[in-house]
Please model this.
Amino acid sequence: MKRSLQRVLIGVKAGWQREIRAYFATPLAYLFLAIFLFTLSIFTWDVSGFFDSGAADLAPFFSWHPWLYLLFMPALAMRLWSEESQSGTRELLLSLPVSLTGLVIGKLLAAWTVAAIALILTFPWWISVNYLGPADNTAIALSYAMSWIMAGAYLSLGAMVSALTTSAVIAFVVGVVSAFLLTAAGWPVVSTSIRGLLGPAAADTLAAFSLLTHFETAQRGILDLSSLFYFLSLSVLMVSLNILLIQYRRRSGQ
Amino acid sequence: MLNVESLTKSFGAGAAVDSVSFTLGQGEVVGFLGQNGAGKSTTMRMICGVLDPDAGDAQLQGRSILTDRLEAQRLIGYLPEGAPLYHDMTPVEFLHFLGACHGLGRATLRAATDRVIADARIGDVARRRIAGLSKGYRRRVALAGALLTDPPVLLLDEPMDGLDPVQKQAMRALIARMAGDKAILISTHTLDEVATMCSRAIILDHGRIVADLAPEALARQHELGLEAAFVELVSARRRPS
Model:
């Protein structure tokens, strides 16, 4: 048991180091961070009219997170496994005495680290809101934490999708579409349409699986344990599927 | 050291590898011969755990690649076909990554890195990006990776591919130097290499072993030598009966 755990941890460390190096050895991470921060600022400032509201809270800022994550997190995760398959290094990885579970988690953690850096770099918004008036910093910290955990769920979905294909572009497109479906099911525009088509029970059930629905309470600074459980469960499910997909490809020779 | 038992793999309708069995002992250098698509790489991939067999098993010092995969993989150094590498890394970074996967400590890893850089003769490019290296250097970086933990079993898929004559000679010398305490399986198309380096030749055709004997014995089977014997063996199944 102890030895198995040790092997998983070796895999986590190796996978994390490999991906962090890959992100920062190329302009990918820097480009991601710059575009993410620019887009989030535009949406918060211009579209939501952050400074016009006069309120000292970051709700307009956090409300955009699910929508931006559905685009940006698949971009961050798209090459995690597809590139290994495309370049042939997957064969090298699978020949090494390293835990596959550890590698999958390590690679995901590297992408999650970049997402954490992106969130940390939004600190000027937090400072601004404190400058505007007395802000509930505990609630803001909680919203940040839940946003990061939600980013992990989006990333695990993107990583799983990248294990399906050898093309990073296909992984991105499929990742965005999957993330959109998981997000939009809780969007009032969509849930109203579903209610009309399939009835209220179906609309409520689908909305219960939406990342948007589960982030609603968190963006107001309220800790909802069921939402936390949902984000973590979704991540564990996607990581498990990711491992199963790679094992399947090892069996089928694809 | 390596015991391959009835390895079988099918892709679609046809068998890519059909009940392949052989053993490799310490000090043996075995040439794995066959035409393109004969099943050489598929067999190697199954031995090192990259691909699961439909049937059969490979045991490395008694450890099954199916039931004790990670421990069996510790005993293998594998040079895959095409030498896939991480192009954003330098050779030193690549070797450190492999060392991390093997769970090597810092001091052990440093010593192992220095040793394989010298063995593979990549010292002059050790801190350059792999993306900028020639095909020959890349292959030697991949070989250095296979040798990093000084494993008892080496699986080398087309190790001479992309090397110039001088590099080929150095590679032959390196293999000869390592041969004493290792079991080495070399996949190749070049029969001269088998004649000069290998103590045994295994010939695969359509996923089946059609010959397993010393190169000299194989050459004696045909008056025109090794190449003619090889052509005759792999053509036999196509001849109308």
Summary: Chain A touches chain B through 27 residues (CB under 8 Å). The radius of gyration of chain A is 19 Å.
